[in-house]
Design brief:
The complex is a heterotrimer of chains A (304), B (301) and C (454). Chain A is mainly alpha-helical and 304 residues long. Chain A is 72% helix and 0% strand. Chain C has a domain of 184 residues: D-Maltodextrin-Binding Protein, domain 2 (3-Layer(aba) Sandwich), CATH 3.40.190. In chain C, helix 2 runs antiparallel to helix 14 and helix 17 packs antiparallel against helix 18.
Chain lengths: 304, 301, 454
């Protein structure tokens, strides 16, 4: 190998150059989104390529104006959408984490015939595309409403109604999700058997083992599940699109589409401000939980 | 020594316990997955305008598909999208992971930049790219005009809609990069040492050591991407519907399925489309698993 | 050594905790839509409507006046996006609102599916009768011999043109084009290109705003649907001529140039609307343009005329024009049809329709209008819109239950025609077969479901 040092220097320079270019390309759309969101409309929709509005000193006041206009828009009500999204997120993250952990426990720490079959079924449902069930799922919830009407519960207790409410978006989460069950099951399989055998000898029940030993030990894996599911809920568009009929119940993703869709009434700078409002929370969350998230994804794809 | 009888009893008891622990999923999947699937199979043989009850029409919904040019168009668009975006995303994902391999300063920063776009909600992805792709004021065409290129009307022009979609899918490659990175870290060092002793160049090492060793991760990502590509919905739904109608080049399978179910009042047809979609996904994944027997290298297998 | 990671970990946890607490706090105590307290003890009616902003405020004013006028019924006004689709899902879900403000083209599918309460018996006792409405407007209220909808506001569609640009191009602003040939001539005079050959201004531009891509055939003396025979007429000679006419614009301006030009337009209800900025001198639009102008460019000197017609069809006494209507319906399954009808009757009073029409800059849907309404009307071209209302040659969106899908198919082909990807003589017969297939299938399904009776 003649003369390795210069060639290594060149290859490393090329590598950093490529990485920098790629990072720029990947970040640019978001940078441009924020940049547009702090410009007046006349400058947003113009041939001028600049990060900041002209004059630059107008940036803070223009930003404040645009964001206030989006936040206070009486026709779209972003504060209400934010609240709805958070309600759905909180309820489904709790339900998803807890129920997936329970099912994963049953598939890993309890020895029984048939658990292999159930695991196969769980994995099989991961293949089912949502569109296959989305339309009938709507009818399932409608049937629940009809049944409640038959039993006289509706319209007496309107708050129990499914269609048009947020419930179809979070109730299914309380029954576990295939991917999350699988993730947690892998984690539980990796915990030493001696743990619960010792606890069993001490007379602990399955529930005690689950609650006092397994759950505390699996905090990192639970965090991954919670994070994934939070991001999923925050992103979900098709679910709200189908189940939510009422503007009061819209979530942020649906509200953002509405904001864009209303007969082309919204200027670009405000659309980008609204997009920034929707994107910002997940980005902040990412910055805090980067390691957990990345490790969670790394582990999801490989080991079996 | 326990008697066979008490043994059987114990096993029965454990089965009950196992069922109890897995009951949330058993109930949930029955109610929210398998029941809807069965219903959609039934509806696929009916005419069902949503407001009125379904009536049996036999296989007419399936028979109709071949004569429905819109259906054929969405199948075509979706297939083209999958056929281009999956290989390109795989190549880009593996290459980026390879670039991040080894001792790289600021690796965390670079990885974060690549990963962040996958967190952006799809509706926002669509909006941001609509703006970037705008033929007149969009960042991309403005930048191109600086170097003397007149950019196309990306999301309007029928021949540029698909490239736009594929570029957007490349932007969301971060998740698979993370998985490839992890897979590459698991490749035993000594294999590279041996390859180097054999006189392999860096590219040969990548081709003959890295790629086979991470092939299970590639298979996993390709399957996930296939399932996602066949279902693509939110981004084109937001981008390609305009006041003067749907841009035909940006019309995808799930969009048409949704329109049939909830706009045109043709739930039966929509369910038939949904079942066909399921079969397509099963066939594609099955084919990939078969192909993988030859192509994917499992350690210890 | 280990203190730094520990501190970082602590900060991370603190940040995460703050975020979670903030999120939960917002979820628990965040804003909700206020439920008006004054509804206590009254029948509460939910009313879904599509209008936002100034149009919504006008309707809200009508609702408020109703709520103040009596103490038995209380109406809550809700704005709903994609109203036709959301209402379909809500009615099918068994939880419809009490009142819905739909588009006229929603009436046939809703009516045929039995999703609406017929008004023939319940409206007249409230003093609401069909003969009170303008001739053209009556067409949308009934479907297959039954009365299903009342009218919130109605607009007719006409040519809006920029008088200042006319003057600049040496055209007489008081003599707008009457025939398609004249429109072409005016257009050619108004086109302006930059030194580098880029379009800066056009006279007329078919896809702006492109809301009714199907209406050109009517101005060529044809139509695209025959309700009596339930036939698609998409490939009629008139429509083929109309589409060839549309393509002549793409050809003469350059199709790539047209695409780029269109991308330079701002969104509709913004100051960057191309009619406001002068990029397009003539557009086909409804009376609400006056609101658009008033909001963003009050000094724009615009004129209104019936949209031009093909050679030999011009008749000032009977202009051709689309009537596009917002209807108010009571869905089947609404809990208080009688109370809903009372509110409907309130909105159909002459003073209320005129209040609403004034705010929307539209003509009143009623046959009679008060003199003050006409004199004080904010739209200077209101008489043109009235002429179309009264014209025997006014037309409405094709009254078929498959119109939504028909139109989607049609729009798709029009886009391709406009981009010169297909030829009318080839694409339109194929489209006619397809749309006829939609009509036939819907008819077969009706027959199977209800027998020959319907």
């Amino acid at each position: 190998m003649p003369n390795p040092a210069p060639s290594r220097a060149i290859s490393s320079a090329v590598r950093y150059l490529l990485l920098t270019a790629v990072s720029f390309a990947f970040l640019m759309p978001l940078v441009w989104m924020v940049s547009t969101s702090i410009k007046p409309e006349s400058q947003a929709a113009s041939g001028r390529v600049a990060l900041l509005p002209d004059p630059v000193s107008s940036a803070p006041s223009q930003a404040a104006e645009n964001y206030a206009q989006v936040w206070n828009d009486p026709a779209v009500q972003f504060p209400i959408y934010l609240r709805n999204t958070l309600v759905v997120a909180a309820l489904s993250v709790i339900g998803m984490t807890l129920s997936s952990a329970m099912v994963a426990y049953g598939l890993s720490r309890v020895r029984w015939k048939g658990r292999g079959l159930i695991l196969t079924l769980v994995l099989a449902t991961m293949m089912i595309p949502f569109p296959v069930i989305m339309a009938p799922l709507y009818i399932v919830f409608r049937s629940i409403d009809r049944a409640m009407e038959g039993a006289g519960i509706l319209p007496a207790a309107e708050s129990l109604r499914m269609i048009g409410s947020l419930k179809p978006l979070w109730i299914p989460a309380w029954f576990g999700g295939a991917f999350n069950i699988f993730l947690l099951r892998q984690f539980y399989m990796g915990l030493p058997k001696e743990l619960d055998e010792a606890a069993r000898l001490d007379g602990m029940s399955h529930w005690g083992i689950f609650w006092r030993i397994i759950l505390p030990l699996s905090r990192p894996a639970l965090a991954v599940v919670a994070l994934f599911h939070f991001i999923y809920v925050w992103n979900d568009f098709i679910g709200p699109l189908i189940f939510l009929t009422h503007r009061d119940t819209f979530t942020l993703a649906l509200g953002l589409q509405l904001y864009q869709g209303q007969a082309g009434m919204t200027p670009w700078n405000l659309l980008m401000a609204a997009s920034t409002l929707v994107v910002a929370p997940v980005l902040v969350l990412f910055m805090i939980t980067q390691r957990t998230l990345v490790e969670g994804i790394s582990s999801s794809g490989l080991k079996d | 020594m326990t008697s066979p009888r008490s043994n059987r009893r114990r096993r029965f008891r454990e089965t009950l316990i196992g069922l109890a622990w897995t009951s949330p999923w058993l109930v949930g999947s029955a109610l929210f997955v398998f029941l809807p699937m069965a219903m959609s199979l039934y509806y696929s043989f009916t005419d069902f305008p949503l407001i009125e009850p379904p009536i049996w029409t036999g296989t007419s919904n399936y028979a109709r598909m071949g004569d429905d040019p819109t259906f054929l168009r969405v199948v075509h668009n979706t297939a083209i999208y999958a056929a281009f975006s999956i290989p390109l995303c795989t190549i880009l994902g593996v290459s980026l992971a390879a670039l991040l391999q080894g001792r790289v300063r600021f690796a965390r920063f670079f990885r974060a930049c690549i990963f962040i776009p996958t967190l952006v909600p799809l509706v926002a992805v669509a909006m941001v790219w609509m703006w970037l792709f705008n033929g007149e004021f969009g960042f991309i065409n403005q930048a191109l005009s600086r170097i003397g290129i007149k950019g196309p009307a990306w999301i309007v022009d029928a021949s540029w809609v698909m490239p736009s979609m594929i570029i957007m899918s490349l932007w969301s490659v971060g998740q698979s990069v993370v998985i490839y990175t992890a897979a590459m870290q698991d490749v035993p060092r000594h294999l590279y040492e041996a390859a180097r002793l054999d006189g392999m160049t860096a590219f040969q090492r990548f081709r003959h050591v890295t790629v086979p060793m991470i092939s299970p991760a590639i298979l996993f990502n390709v399957i996930v991407m296939t399932i996602n590509a066949v279902q693509v919905f939110a981004v084109p739904y937001v981008m390609f519907r305009r006041p003067d109608g749907q841009n035909p080049a940006g019309h995808f399978y799930t969009m048409y399925l949704y329109e049939n179910a909830f706009v045109y009042g043709q739930m039966g047809y929509a369910c038939a489309m949904a079942w066909l979609q399921l079969l397509i996904i099963l066939a594609l994944t099955g084919a990939m698993f078969l192909a993988s027997r030859k192509l994917v290298y499992y350690r210890g297998a | 050594m280990s203190t730094q990671p520990a501190i970082r970990d602590l900060t991370r946890r603190a940040a995460l905790g703050t975020l979670a607490a903030g999120g939960l706090g917002f979820a628990l105590f965040g804003p909700r839509t206020e439920r008006q307290a004054s509804a206590r003890g009254r029948i509460v009616l939910d009313y879904w409507e599509k209008w936002t902003r100034h149009e919504g405020e006008a309707m809200q004013a009508v609702v408020n006046a109703f709520n103040a006028s009596q103490d038995r019924i209380f109406v809550r006004y809700f704005v709903t996006a994609d109203i036709g689709q959301k209402s379909l899902v809500a009615i099918a879900g068994g939880d419809p609102p009490d009142l819905i403000g739909l588009y006229a083209f929603n009436v046939p599918p809703y009516a045929e599916s039995g999703a609406l309460t017929p008004l023939d018996d319940i409206a007249p006792p409230h003093g609401v009768t069909i003969d009170r409405y303008a001739l053209g407007v009556r067409q949308v209220m009934q479907h297959k011999g039954q009365w299903w909808a009342t009218v919130n506001t109605a607009g007719s569609v006409a040519l809006y043109y920029n008088r200042a640009l006319f003057r600049e191009a040496g055209l007489d602003p008081d003599r707008p084009p009457r025939t398609i040939a004249e429109l072409d001539e005016y257009h050619n005079r108004l086109v302006r290109k930059s030194a580098s050959g880029r379009l800066e201004r056009v006279g007329f531009f078919h896809p702006e705003p492109g809301w009714w891509s199907w209406l050109w055939a009517y101005h060529f003396g044809g139509r695209i649907y025959d309700p009596a025979a339930d036939r698609s007429l998409v490939a009629s000679a008139e429509n083929i001529r109309a589409m060839e006419w549309m393509q002549s614009y793409s050809r003469s301006l350059g199709v790539d140039e047209c695409k780029a030009f269109r991308e330079s337009f701002g969104n509709y209800f913004t100051p960057e609307n191309p009619f406001l900025t002068g990029k397009v001198a003539m557009i086909v639009q409804g009376p609400w343009v006056a609101n658009l102008v008033g909001a963003f460019k009050p000094d724009l000197d615009y004129g209104v005329a019936p949209f031009p017609v093909a050679e030999g069809l011009y008749d000032p006494a009977a202009p051709i024009g689309l009537i596009d209507t917002d209807v108010l319906v009571i869905p089947k399954g609404a809990r208080h049809p009688e109370a809903s009808m009372e509110f409907v009757a309130w909105t159909q009073r002459q003073d209320m329709t005129e209040l609403l029409a004034t705010k929307h800059c539209k003509p009143s849907p009623l046959a009679q209008a008060s003199p003050e309404f006409i004199v004080n009307h904010p739209n200077r071209g209101i008489s043109v819109h009235y002429d179309i209302f009264r014209s025997p040659r006014a037309f409405i969106p094709p009254p078929t239950r498959v119109w939504q899908q028909f139109k989607d198919e049609f729009d798709t082909v029009v886009q391709r025609l406009w981009r010169l990807e297909v030829e009318p003589a080839k694409a339109l017969p194929a489209l006619e077969t397809r749309t006829q297939g939609l009509l036939d299938r819907a008819r077969d399904e009706r027959l199977r479901r209800h027998g020959a009776a319907s």
